[in-house]
Amino acid sequence: MRRNSMRKSKPSQSISPEAQEPASEHQMEPTSPPPPQKKQAQAKRRRRSPLRAGLAVMAGRTAGAVSRRLRFGGGTSIVGVVAQSVYPQIVEHLASELEHGSLVISGTNGKTTTSSFIAAILRDGGLRVWNNREGSNLAGGVASSLVIRAKPNGHLRRSGRAISILEVDEAALPQVVSSVQPRVAVFTNLFRDQLDRYGEVDSVLTLWQRAIHRLPATTTLILNADDPAVAQLGRNFAGRVLYYGINDLALDTLHQESSIERHQVMDARTCPHCGGEFIYQARFYSHMGHYHCPNCGLERPQPDIAASSVQVDSFDRMRLQIQTPLYTQELVVPLPGLYNIYNALAAATAALALDMDWEPIVSGIEQSKPVFGRGERVQANGKTMRLLLAKNPTGFNEVLRTLFTDEVPRHVLFILNDNTADGKDISWIWDVDFERARGRTESLVVAGTRALDLALRLKYAGIAQDEIQIIPPQPLRAEKNELAARNRANRRNKKIPSEATEAGIRSYGIKNAIDQALDQTPLGETLFIVPTYTGLLEVHRELEQRGLTPHYWEGGNA
Predict the structure, then answer these.
(1) What pTM, to 2 d.p., does this model score?
(2) Residues forming the annotated binding site?
C-alpha cells in the first residue's frame, strides 16, 4: 500500500529562495507583517481604549512596585495579573504595537533555552527583543512582559524594530495566541509531565490543536518532525509549516547499548490517524526519531532544516552540520545534551522563517550563555556548580545520559520535590534510568521534599546505601522525638547543648544539602545539581542570598 506521509497530508512550504539570498545590511531586517495583517491590527487598535490601557499599566506597575517594596518577590507576575483585571484586552492592545510582531514557543521541554537562542539571534540581527523572562509563562506573565514596557498613556515605549518572544505554558497557549496573534509559533516536543495538572499527553495535544485553530493563516508553524505528536499539528493548518529534525543516524539508540533503550519512555507510541503502532527506523530518545505507521502510511515529515551530522567536541560544545533546502552550514552549540541539538534547530528554523540571514544565527547560538537552571554555571570558592533542571522522566534520562556518557565520575546533588509546580505524583522516578549513575559518582547527595523516595529508587538502581548522603527537608518524627528527649536530658543535667545537638541528628534543608555537596567537591572540580522545578528555585534563592548569582528576573532586555 502506498504511504501517505504527514507532509503529503499537509504539505509544508520550504523556505523560499528569496528569503535565503545573501542579505545586505538593510535586508537583514525581518519583513513586516503582510498588509492584511496590518489592516486587521489597525482596525483593532481603533476599537481599543488607550485611556483604559493607561490605567491598567499604572495599576499593574504600582502593584509590582508594592510587591517589591514588601519583599514578596520580584513583583513581576503580579503586574500582568492586576493590569488584566483592569483591562482584559491589555495584551492584545500592547502586542499590536510591536513593529515586528510576536513569536510564541511552547512544549514540554526546551522552551527556555530555545527562547534564549532565538532572542540572541534576533538581537544579532539588529532587532530589539522583548520576552517574558521577568514573569511566568502563564497568561499573567505574558501580560507582565508587555505592561512593564508600556508608558502611562497606554502605549508601548520603543516599539519600533521590536519583537516579543513569548515562552508559553502548554495549558495557557490557546488564551495567549488569541491575544497576540503571533507571526511564528514554535513547538518543541510533547512528553508526559505533571500528570496531576496536565493529564496525559492527549490532553495537552487537544489544547495545542485548539490554539492552532485560533492562529491566522499568516502565522508560520515551526514543528519538530521527529516528535510524531508535534509533527501532526501541521496536518490541517492553512498557513506555512516548517519542520526541523535530526538526520544523523549515528545518534540512533536502537542500535546502542541495551540499557539506553530499556529506559526510553515512549509517550507517543500510536498513530493519531488510525491508532496503529509506530515502527521506528531510528530513535534518538523517548519517541523522538524516524517513524512510520505500517497501517495507514503516516510517516515522519522530511525536515526543512536538519542536523545531518553531529560531532561532540567537549561537554559544552557540539558541532552540527545543518542542511537547508539551499545549502549546508556549520553551527556550534555551546551547551551539552542531545536535547539542545533540537533546541538549536528550532531556533534556527524560527529565525529563517523571520528572514534572518545565517550569520546572526551562527553568532547568536554560538555566543549564547546557559539560562536559568539549564546548564547554568555558578562559581563558588574555587569550585563550579552546574544547574541542570530535570522535571520529568524523559528530561531526567537525558540529563543522566549527558552526565555519564563519557564514564567520568561526577559529584552530584539530586533534588526531588513534590510541590504543586513539580507535580504531586512522583511515581515517574521509577521510569528514570538511575542505573546509569551506578559506579559513576564520586559523591552523591540527595535532598528535597521527597529525598527518601529518591534514595530508595537509587538503592534499587544498585547504588550502595553508604554511597548516598540523604539531606531531608526536616527531621522525621522519630528524630524530633529523640532530639526533644536529648534537650530535656540536657536541661535536667544543666548541660549546654552542643551545636550538633541543637542541629539535630543530621543536617536538613537545601542550604545544608548544597554545603554538604560542595564540601565533598574538590577545588577546581564541578558539582552537578539536578533539581526538579521548585528545587531549582530553592537552589537559586540560596545562591542569591550568598551573592553568587543575580535574581532570576534580573538582567532583562533592552
Answers:
(1) 0.80
(2) 271, 274, 293, 296
